[in-house]
Write a structure and sequence with these properties.
It holds the Pfam family DUF7218. The protein is mostly helical and 81 residues long. It has four helices and no strands.
């Protein structure tokens, strides 16, 4: 498939997300996050972060309904996105 869009930071992740059925916009948002494609076996220490930090991360990856989510819901959404 491949795209010539040089604004995509992690092309392989972008293509994989498209193959899973994500929209081009959402795939690009996720693939362009600073830690796109970084693997570590752990989603991150979300519990130690503030709700505001979690909201900002949720916004970066395009989680809808984030403004009405509690901290626990944001953590769940980030881990399962």
């Amino acid at each position: 498939m491949g795209t010539s869009n040089s604004r995509i930071k992690n092309e392989a992740q972008y293509e994989a997300l498209l193959d899973k059925g994500y929209s081009k916009e959402k795939s690009a948002r996720i693939a362009n996050t600073p830690d796109a494609g970084v693997k570590g076996g752990k989603a991150g220490d979300y519990e130690g972060r503030t709700k505001s930090d979690l909201y900002t991360q949720a916004k970066k990856v395009g989680i809808e309904g984030r403004s009405k989510m509690s901290k626990a819901e944001l953590i769940n959404a980030l881990r399962n996105n």
